[in-house]
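Your task:
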Amino acid sequence: MKLLFKYLSSCWFLNNPAELVPPASFMWKNVAFYLISGCIVEGLIADPADGTLEVLGRTIMAFSTIAVLLLFEKKWGCFNQLYTSIFVCENFIMTLAVCAEMLDLWMTMQHMEYREEINIAAATFLVLWYIAIVSYIFRRFFDHPTSVSVIYAFSYFILTYGVPMLLMDI
């Protein structure tokens, strides 16, 4: 639990995720949570079967993108640390997304007038926070300027979310 809190502090830009070394069991539990929470969110948004396929595609793209980035940066030895750092923070954001979906459902049942605007604002906030977190993680791992880390994070977001979504629409 202590290790989880150390990783989660990266979501608030307080901890250096490059200094954390996760045990194998923590890494695989993290991946399992990523898959389960992703399937829940996608199942609430779309067809559960399509959502599951999209989450599997995102997982493959995430691992592939991290692997290519680490090969490019010549830091292959950091694979477990980097993907665990990103996935823990992504799991945190995904948990908040599930809460936002529940809030949206409640607001729909209450026939709230500004439900769509609130939902769009929450989604925008979560995406921007996610990109900021991943940028922070990349900056800590690779010592690049913030601008380069933001470009990496935005590219990572497009590759891991955009590509599987586009493939599902074909």
Q: What stands out?
A: The chain has a mean pLDDT of 90.
